[in-house]
Amino acid sequence: MKLPIFLIVTVIIYFNAYAQQKGPNISFEDESHNFGKINEVKGSVTYTYNFRNTGDEPLIIKSVQPSCGCTTPEWSREPVVPGGKGYIKATFNPAGRPGSFNKSIAVITNGITESVVIRFSGEVIGKELTTIDIYPFAIGDLRLTSTYISFGKVSPERLASRNIDVINTGTSSVSLSFPSIPSHMEVMVNPSTIKPNQKATIEFSYDPKKKNDWGFVSDQISFMLNGKTDGSYKFNVSTHIEDNYTNANPQQLANAPKMIIENKTFDFGRIKAGTSIEIAYRFKNAGKTNLEIHKILPSCGCTNIKTKEKTVKPGSTGEIIGVFNSAGQKGVVNKTITVITNDPQNLNLVFWVRGTVE
Predict the structure, then answer these.
(1) What single DSSP character describes residue 43?
(2) Strands 99-109 and 61-66, sheet pairing
């Protein structure tokens, strides 16, 4: 008797499916979920992904790995028998995450497909920010967006500026003034007298050329409120000054200085505590313009270091020399010396002093 063609096809599909599911196999009812719009103030939301073991051996969830610390997973801990059901529960915390989100969770099993990725998405409607949220720092009756100003990386040829916003949360006007400002900075307050509930802006301008320094540098700027000062009335300022070749053309880069170093590591071997060792690093300027050694920064006061020449002409050699004092050191020693130059490939070059102090 001949079987109907549709029955033959059904049998083939069945046996193919059966063959593909030898061993444990995880099959989710759905692998993605959209929470839609959720409110940050209402807290965490949860969705459960149900699955079935469509294989012929027990399925074990080895681990569940969310893509973000904002997601807390729970899952079936016991082996899921063939035909049995299990779950992965994902709890998403929207705190501090306004806007659209798209997260994933990697589910690692002992199944035919070892790793399956499930996803969830949505949009967080952020909470209405309070004055404290916007201005988290309080000094007297003033609240500020920050008391720390970082200008980031700047070159001596470029002025930098940053703003801090202020609001007066008191019941009386506050006069904000700066009696002493470093010569490389300017500060403007608009308005300088801030009425109750009024906002103001403090603009900080920084001239790295006038600072006449290199690398990471910092300052403190004190201010007065209504003509009075206090230890807490200050701003901390930092910047990192180095040459900038971002906009250099190919010809300028080809003509730039090039520092070639024989050895970046000085290994003094084994010495007794209290011994002083002379150290030296030799280099050559293989570029076409003068190599400038702007600054040398040892990581430890145990290392006294300098350069014989701060300016090294093209084709000439130079030497960084100094003394390592092992007093107070013990065991394996790893000290660094940062050399700041105008070589675009070695703006911040790190040398090492290594050895063992007995």
Answers:
(1) -
(2) antiparallel
What is the bridge-based pairing of β-strands 115-125 and 32-39? Answer: parallel
pTM for the structure as a whole:
0.69
* CB neighbourhood size of 170 (10 A): 15
Structure tokens at 75: 């899952």
H or E element, residue 214: none
Q: Which residues of the chain have pLDDT under 50?
A: 1-2, 6-20
Q: Which residue has the tokens 């300016």?
A: 311
Q: Give residue-wise pLDDT tens across range 114-173.
A: 999 999 999 999 988 899 999 999 998 999 999 999 999 999 999 999 999 999 999 999
DSSP state of 288: S
DSSP label at residue 246: T
Residue 332: beta bridge partners?
A: 356
20 to each of 28, 116, 298, how far by Cα in Å?
A: 16, 16, 63
Query: Which tens digits make up the pLDDT trace of 211-229?
Result: 999 999 999 999 999 999 9
**How many degrees, rounded to 5, is the angle at CA 160 between CA 155 and CA 163?**
155
Instruction: Find, among 204, 187, 270, the residue nearest to 239 by Cα.
Output: 204
Q: In sequence order, which residues have a C-beta less than 8 Å from that of residue 90 and are 6 or more positions away?
A: 46, 47, 48, 49, 66, 71, 72, 73, 103, 105, 118, 120
Which DSSP state fits 227? T
Residue 328, burial from CB neighbour count under 10 angstroms (0-12, 13-18, 19+):
exposed
CB-count exposure of residue 166 (10 Å: 0-12, 13-18, 19+): buried
